[in-house]
Amino acid sequence: xxxxxxxxxxxxxxxxxxxxxxxxxxxxxxxxxxxxxxxxxxxxxxxxxxxxxxxxxxxxxxxxxxx
Length: 67
Known about the structure:
Layout: E1 8-12, E2 15-18, E3 28-29, H1 40-49, E4 56-59, H2 60-63
Parallel strand pairs: 1-4
Antiparallel strand pairs: 1-2, 2-3
């Protein structure tokens, strides 16, 4: 069976963030050569352009109990 890679988009306050060893206070919007900004739609479009057919979205606000 071939290895399947599914990219993950972590969201906080509707921005894609870079996780830092589970220290959510240190999470900041991503900066990447693949996407012009940290908007989820921009990052998702970049991943689709790279050939990914699916993405896991982690809403860290909801996971942390925010409404």
